[in-house]
Fold each of these.
Amino acid sequence: MRVKKTTADESPASTDPNTKRLATMQKRARVVRSTALWRCSLFLVFAIAAFAIAVAPNCFGASQTGQRIEGKVVDQAGAPVVGAAITLRQDAQASTATSDDEGRFSFDGSQRRGSLRLTVTAEGFGTFDRELTSSDLTGALMVTLQPAPLSDAISTTAARTETRVGDTPASLIILPAADLTTTPALVLDDKLRQVPGFSLFRRSGSRTANPTSQGVSLRGVGASGASRAVVLADGIPLNDPFGGWIYWGREPVERIKRVEIVQGGESSLYGSDALGGVINIIERNPRDSAISGSFSGGNESTWNASMFASGVLKGWAIKVGVEALHTDGYVLVDDDQRGTVDTPAGVEYSTTDLQLERLLGDQGRVFIGGSIFSEDRKNGTPLQTNDTYIRQLDAGLDWQPANLGSFVLRGYGGSQVFDQDFSAIAANRNSETLTRSQRVPAGQSGFTLQWSRAAGSRQTLVAGVDGREVHGASDEIIFVAGKATSAVGAGGRERFLGVFAQDLIQITPRWLVSLGLRGDRWRHFDALSTTRTFATGAQTVTVFPERIKTAFDPRASVMYKAADNVSVYVSGYRAFRAPTLNELYRAFRVGNVLTLANDKLEAERLTGGEAGVAVDTLSRRVNVRGTFFWSELTRPIANVTLSVTPALITRQRQNLGRTRSRGVEVETSARVSPTVTITGGYQFVDATVLRFPANPALEGLQIPQVPRHIFTFQARYSDPHILTVAVQGRASSKQFDDDQNLLPLDGYFSLDAYVSRRLVRGIEVFGAFENLTNQRYQVGRTPVVTLGPPILARGGVRLAFGRQ
């Protein structure tokens, strides 16, 4: 580290314009040189996309015309199955269709001779596969789908290639669209709380929480502002490039097909951000024109609109996803501690995502798109506000050439600005003064290239490479007694490059082995901080040394199928997470708690394992899975208390010595009848600090923000001819808001309900109710106790037209 102090006469403010212009040009040149390789990589992805779009019409055959085959897809109760994928095969040719909102489908093809085979698949149902007879062609086909057991569902997350859930030696949870739609919660992070191991930094959700506290944690590895799990949408990470938290409103809910969650270290496939697991948002990808939307309004001046539309014509597709939300919110502080500065915490955001796609016949697709997200928040007092603006471009290719395997290519890049103001609040909470005003510009670019292929009938190979570069800074104005006194800036750049490979081997019909290995290299560079005092003009510049680190993360899993409906697996793995630019260089304040940055932070390293058993019983209508897990985290980054005064608690991000999270989780799902399903989950986790030589007083204490017990359940009755009713609940035991375990948060129980009724084809009305018991449970202590929401109620209408 080099520190240079300058006098007022030497400060940048007193230099002549030519000198400043030269310095600016030199800085831009350095930035251009450092990012040239990554921009070239991103340009290559877009070039491939443009080339494929241009030449695709000449490379793939046109559709057939002629004989018409029609049919309808229904479930056991006779209700239409919307969005089923239908494939009609003859020899090497195949035609595809999607069932519409009445379950109907049709094929227009040339006069066919020989055998025809019809395959129908739909999420939540078993596969229908049958060779058609001549009698099938004389009238409309009626295809009845049977509910599929969870083990037969297909996942693309745990192995980065399509695998059956029953063949996945990992803790995998799939939330289909039906579960997400009938969840009363309005925003995605609250919908995911039906998973016991899912939590944000605090109990509050993104409707009221500051974005910097929306980092996601899985399975008790410890919550933080930065996520300890990667969140993906169509293979592109949603984790904030500067701070690692998640803007949950960036993905329109109407565009989501399902969400797949893998708990446990997944760095062997996904790198740094997947230390605790992966949350993969699978987007809808209809091959026909369709439009759907939901519109609702409720108390606290809350309104929401989410829409998705797709249009397909002659092999071209355009997709648009839009979502907007506004809520005035509620006052976070309890009545007996509230003052005149306490105002509702609310949010208003909008997101727009546009994608142009070229279908490559049955071999894949190529696309290019862009998105814009903006958000404005009120954080509970007049002076505490923040806003965010994000722009991103992405492109990709999914290609399955004959006999060569499957290729997936993604490229993305974007920029963003995050502004936030902090204040100090008087003890009586009747006044506040501005303490910091921050602006955080940041950007990133990255790519992923993956190949997978079946090698024989019992082996699947997966390999790939990915990379990402992030740059960002925190520029602050410091206020004392309401007067601006100094300017502080800090930031830098990070570059990641990883190579991964995995081999899935079915040794025998009952034994499955998975072996994976990944190598990562990351670099912190161009990092510095500056401080300038306004009164004297003196400036201090600190240049941080460049750091280069590597990590190797293996994973090995074995699954044994003791019977057709019983499987046992065991896994062991290593994982890591590099500190974010936010943790290294940006301080923040919540209430009267100030958390300082630490430029000396090291990467976190996780060693863990798990063993589980899954059972399908009662004719495979009931699935039960139990898992024991254990993980030890060396050098975990935690907010360590430095000092406590009546007016201010000061903490700093530091690497602890070692923490351990171990426990059990049990999940069950049951189809009681074609119209009734019940799911539930329980997690017990013992998360403690094992070693911290710098402060032994923390050893043996509970990791902050991790409760020992979490229980969730959901019961749903759904008959499209009558009514859909869903009830869900979540219970959590006591947890602590601080490292010293001095600020406890009481346990709580929350109950929600949802009801909907179909009016006519494609239109239904619904009502959603959150926290029916109106229990204002504790979500934080800063050190003033802040509370969760009161009862939230809204009503709305949902539309769906075309082939979904």
Amino acid sequence: MVCKYYIDLKPTKQWDFVKNKLVVSLTIAFSLFFLVFVVRITDDLSKANSNILKSQNVIDVTNLISTRLLIAEKILEVDDRWVKEKFDDSEWGSIRIPKFQIVKMQNFKEGNHAYYRIKVPKSAFTKINHLKSETFLFLQSIYFNRFDIIINGKFYRTYNPRKPGENRVVIPVDEGIDNIVGIRGHIKTGDTGIDSRNKIMLGKGLEFNEVHSANYKGQTVFQLVFILCKGSILFVFALIYLLLKVDRSFEKFFIFGICAVIEELVAGDYFHGLLNFNQMVYLYNFANVGASVSVFLFFADLVSYKIRGRLVLVFALILIFISSFLAFDSLYWNYIVDLSEFMRFWNVLVVSILIYYVPKIINFDKVLLVGMIAIIILYLWGAFFSNNIGLNLKTYGNLLLFFIVAYQTFALFRREQEALQLKEKQLMDQEKDVAIGKIARLLAHDVRKPLELMKLVIDKLLSGDASEEFIEIAKEDMEMSISSVDQQVNDIINYSKTSFVQLTEISFYKVLAHAIKQIMATHQEMKIDIEYNFNQQTKIFGDQMRLSGALANLLTNSVEAIRDLGGSYEGKIKLSTFCENDHFIFKIFNDGPEIPDHLLTNIFKPLFTHGKTNGTGLGLASVVKTLNEHNGSIIVENRSQEGVEFILKFQKGFEFDDSAAYEFKNSSILYNYDTAKILNIESPSPIPFRVLVLDNDPSKVEIINKHITKGYSSNVIQRCSNYDEAVNLIKRNRFDLYLLNSQNGGKLIYENSLYYLSAEVILYSENLPTNLTNLCQHGLTNRKKILFVDDTKLFRVSWLMFHGEHNIQCVSSPEEALSMVEGKNIFCFDIFVLDLHFSNSSMDGISLAKRIRGIYPKSLILISSSINDFETEFRLISKSDYDVRKYSF
């Protein structure tokens, strides 16, 4: 992952306002242009017949012609018999086209043949006498899979339509005579004969062809525009679905879109030739079923209207049954509806669905409400007042409904995205609250630690019991504790800083040497080998204070990776510098475990921690911010089976910077404090009981000696005869048993010097206690064995001073404690006192306590902490409470 310096170029609010107005204006302009274009094409289509009849060369002969019809099982050959025979033959039924619907005839079925005999009387030509030898009869729509044209007893042509327009024919006729036009249709399922909706015209053939061609092209453009609009939106939505995986209501919109496109294709005769008329009607029917059900479900989703799936299925099945029955009736019977009425049925059904949802969306979306009202008007007008159901207002209604559904689907996507963003923000806020609570808790613990240490030192100084060794240890522990707090506070401050950073030429090696000393001195428990490979001896442009914090963070991260993630107190860190493209490159490598690949992109994110119990999650985030402020970058890479390496890039300076001028030590142990070591608590050898006797009577001392040594050979007895001598001994040593004669100042010593110790004290006056043996035995043998675990040396020393070394073992880390309790059981403990947080381990006190509970199920386990506002299954004691006798069984 690369974090590079960048300049924020966010648009201003003024530009946002201008951009939004520009987009809205362009959208409105395009919509108006598209509307005018479509309206013009629609107007041309709707006026196609009237435009033809406006010509002086064309007349309407619908009411002038006579028509006879015969349906026969056998084919009638082209001869004089059926074409020139008496026109009023009784075998032929007289019909009025285009009003008559041939599908109503009982024997109109596949395999039979339909014969039309159309008589164009010579009187019709008197109105167009100026035409010579170029008169044609125009039949706009003949729906047969195959049909033959015979003119005045002569075969003219066979038609086998395969695409829209081929069923519109222009037939040449002779002037001055009665013309007999015969049409022989080979009936197949779906054929409907001569269309019952169009006029029959007589006129100039060239003009028919020109108008017909323009009409066909206009209709094609009209249908393609609508189909392309819907298809494009469907394609865009499909991409959105595939790329964003936002699928709420998408399936309803997609089903509706597909059905709407199919309806347009059917209405425009684009399936003619591939499907017969009946099949197109059934396809039209099922497309409308799918569109209606999907629209119903879409608006239910939109207004959060709960509908049972079974009810939807029942409704769909009922609709399929009713609509299929009506489609069949419109094709064959016309008992209930004809084809136009069947198409009106779908208009009315969609209108009823929209009207059902209008009350539910009045306060939902004003744009949607206005659009639905416009759609309802278009559908109703198309159903009851338009002459062309398939191509006129219904198409507008379909397109507007399509856009409304698309618009609302986009709106749903946006609302879901906003809801998702709100949810993510809430989760992020919750995570931040948890992280802030964690940071506050860690800071509370780490801030209280130096305060507790200070309080302890002050108490010891006031009592006069603070030795030089004690003060030196206290100084060391307080410095480390304050350094830890300072590091965490710096993480927070550095990350939250927004002040301008002034970059000047600074010595990188000086800052690095200081950071190494600072970090290694605070991790004395570690043994880190440090390798240096400095190949670039120039300064860099930076800010010394900010850079120092960033380098300290990276070094701390390396040390903790070795210890907390790798579980080792020994490791290796490599530091190197070189020049690359006039940039100063610094690499820091540690041989801790590799970072999992799925976490590599997260480690620089704020509040993200991995494998550290006391991490704030702001360390590396503040490093990234510092590098951005330095116009630099940072990259982290896993070195296969070796470790992890951070690569930092800075702006190279011009001045010379000698790395040899600064102290770089090759091991972390060379940076630790030079202080006296406390007693060796790791030795498993028995520690003798130490006894102090204050009495100026040698005979009593001899008696005491006999009682104490009876059965015990490892006791050390120190005798003193007066108050001052006893006080000096107590300041220099700690004893397990104090026998004090009150007449020699024993009571005063107990009240002033021994009140805080957990050792046994026996006070007597002139006579020794009669049960002296039992008292000594209880004081020396029945005391509880304690294991104290804390990463602060001063607390360990204090517990040793308080209890005495014969019954307490002090260790600095959970790992040391587990090695003692899980080892050969040399030590058997009754009480465990555990720190809550450890700066030298990834394990905390609660986890350690649970491990110990599995080994010592009946032992008393206490958690020592400065925090008392959390619940745990283990008893909590204060950091300043050293007396465990009150917690005994």
Amino acid sequence: MGERGLVLRRSTARTPNMRAMDLSSLWTDARRAVHSLMRHPTLFVVSILTIALGTAATTAMLSVRNALVARPLPVAEPGTLHLIDELRSGATSQPLGVDAVPWPRYLAYRDLLDGPFEGVAAEAYRLPGGFSFSTPEGAVPVTGYLVSGDYFDVLGLVPAAGRFFGSDGEPSVVLGHRFWRTRFAGDPEAVGASVRVDGRSYAVVGVAPPDFQGTTHGLPADIWVPFEAYEDGPWVTMIGRLAPGTPPETALTAVRTAATNIPPLQPQTTVRGAEMPRLTGLPPGAEGPVGGFLALLVGTGLLVLVMAAANIAGMLLARGIARRRETAVRLALGAGRARIVWGSMAEVLVLFAVGGGLGIILGVRSAEVLQATRVPLGFDLALDLAPDAATVVLGVLATAIVGSLFGLVPALAASRGELLPHLKSGTTGTPRDARGWRLFVRAQVALSVLLLVTSGLFVRTLREASAVDLGFDPRGVSLAQIDLSAHDYSQEQARIFFEELGERVRAVPGVSDATIASTVLLGATYGRSSNDMRAADQTDDAARVNSAFNLVGPGYFDALGIELVAGRAFSPADGPDAPAVAIVNETLAQRLWPGRSPIGRRMTGGGTFEVVGVVRDGRYASIGERASPYVFRATAQSPVPRRTLHVRSALPHATVIQEVREIVRQLDPDIALQAVQPLEDVVGLTLFPQRFAAWLIGVFGLIGLVFAGTGLYGLLHFDVARRTREMGIRVALGARPARVFRDTVAGGVRLTVAAVLVGLLLAGLSSRLVSGLLIGVAPLDPVTFAGVGLLLILVAAAASAVPARRATRADPREALRAE
């Protein structure tokens, strides 16, 4: 019978070789898959590392998201806890994005909301500083909360040792569990001991539960102190627990009624109502941006896993094509296609099982590295980034699903096709064989473009942000917060303390200036205080301009390099008995007195002030903000006990702080420096999301670029091998090698251009999601998009060069002999 007449048929009878697959056969195929992979160690190792990288990226990002968003607060029935957030205009204070209220307003709320709420508690996190905790070695800074006496009861917590507070004014403290273990070695006798906090004695009455750090994710808490035992007249944040059976809508109506009925206490202040956001561990309004940013990071990790899977699928597809003859023989001898598919899938599952397991371990280690990373906040974050069981399960599921989906393609391809052509020795792959591989390579290229464009937008943002004129110079400025609020200093004593501190610090060799301020510019963790300002000769409410304000000392503008454009700066003569004065920025001057000089004019808002100077606009809350109104007032005329020392010096930051710490110890040994950090770190923190995203997504994008380059190289290498005879014939018919080279490279570039266009389209759609994090860069930035597209085309040309060079060496004699 001639070759073309040969027909191979499988018997339909059941034979030992065709027996339905049982567990023993599955196990046999799995072992065979391991042995087969071990015979190709390069493929085995590269595949495992590739999968591990994708799984690690996904697991680490899921851990971060879980710690900040998904994990509920460790309190009883967190779903019934709500913040009570007033809608205020006029005098406001916004620690952590929540409108705080004066203590008397909280007491009024607590009485009026007794029905719809089971309890209403108050808290104030000591941000950015904390408390001074006296030890035999001197005062040390600790973090924590001022809280109402019913705080722990409203949260439904049980102490790990001792008890909680009995009243708002009980002179006692509750220790954080971690602080109890580190400072007191977990000694039960610590309960009942007397400790000194900010120069006062308090009794330790209990220890907080081990997993409770406070009501805001990431903010550590060493101690809790009752409000009235510590200070009078604080501004507080309110937390309410709904009474059983009370719908949130009913409670919200009661809250809004109370908000408008309770007198606002401050002049020129209006309370328009209130909202009742859930107590989630994130500030109201932050869930969206933080959740979106973390979703971006998790999505990036998943993209790396998908690219890794596509890369593995491409390699296995090529390997399956090379083993077509072996597969055809097995099919001819009676092996079922299901058995062939399972045999190929077994290799995929082995790779993803080993790589995924390694990736989970690497993901856990990556989360530990992220947790150990110091963020310049002035304190250490209290985030538990260790992946829990749910995170590990999600990482495993993501790896298994992606691996199965991408592994099924080469497995099905291995069992597809006619037997006879593949039984002929020397047969190479067909154009159909390359279709699946081309799809994988295009997917890698498109996803690589998506990651590189996103990273490029953040890199461009960092570059643009570095060129933004802040309106002040943070270089060489060291910060240290000092709080006298609980040290029994009178206003006059506090003024004298800060004046003497400034004189002594300025006398330190190498220090050029030292001054104080109530707020640190661009200090995201320092909160925001504002008033509705109005020109004194205006009576129309529409003329009010809401403006943030800062209380600063003499020499502040020189110390920070803020340009004075009109009038004068503050001087020691602007004391408590002198007329109240203020300095405004250009934006506020233009809003209140358009086209006129504000010097000598008067304005109201939190008092009445004469404008003595105008300074150039700057950045106050974020680098990306638009020009906004701002007021500087003389700190001596608005005495508050908490101030941040600003020291400009050519000395190293650590040296400056050591000198300041020694001076403060000499003035009062019970006072510890809080929130110690360089001003440059504070400014840098405002760009932390952009910097972290640029670094992380950039690394993943480069990995994707490597995947895309190797995929292109492998595909073109296979394509050249398949078309060797064709190219040899072309050369024999007179085609020049240079033309063959150009055609081969052009084919790789054409393949890439289509994928690049898809990737740019995806990047254009996704760039809208990160537009809120971009500064000075459009979401569809043409420089970034064009640069990434050109880069991928150059990579495609480089990946095509080696196979193209091989194509030019095709031997015409061998090609003609084969034909």
